[in-house]
Amino acid sequence: MVALQKVGKSAVVCNILGEIAKGRGEFLERFTLTPPCPKVIIVGTDQPLAD
Asked: How far from the centroid of its chain's Cα atoms is residue 5's Cα?
């Protein structure tokens, strides 16, 4: 995913992964998700600990 800084790329990825982990079948009523959620590590120098 490519975009300018601080536009929400990490937030979108975290939300998609969260929906997959919860077993939801779609994201934003548009994209089909297929569980199970893979193991993922997201690292970023501007990433808050809460994410």
From this structure: 16
